[in-house]
Specification:
Order of helices and strands: HH
Strand content: under 5%
Mean pLDDT: 83
Radius of gyration: 30 Å
Largest sheet: none
Helix content: 40-55%
Number of helices: 2
Number of domains: 1
Distance between the termini: 69 Å
Shape: rod-shaped
Length: 58
């Protein structure tokens, strides 16, 4: 009787260990570009400002 309980407990423990060692998905990395305070210099030409803003919105 005691051997049967030990075998069942060991089997459940072994099964738990096998299931818990499953591979996880590798983490996904992202690159975030921080634009500082977000201030655009007032002396930039309008064409450069528009290019800057459109580049940030991509």
């Amino acid at each position: 009787m005691a051997k049967s309980i030990i075998k069942k407990t060991g089997f459940v423990l072994l099964l738990f260990l096998i299931v818990s060692c499953a591979r996880e998905k590798p983490p996904r990395y992202v690159i975030v570009i921080h634009g500082g305070a977000g201030a655009i210099s007032a002396d930039l030409p309008d064409s450069v400002k528009q290019a800057y803003i459109s580049g940030l919105n991509e």
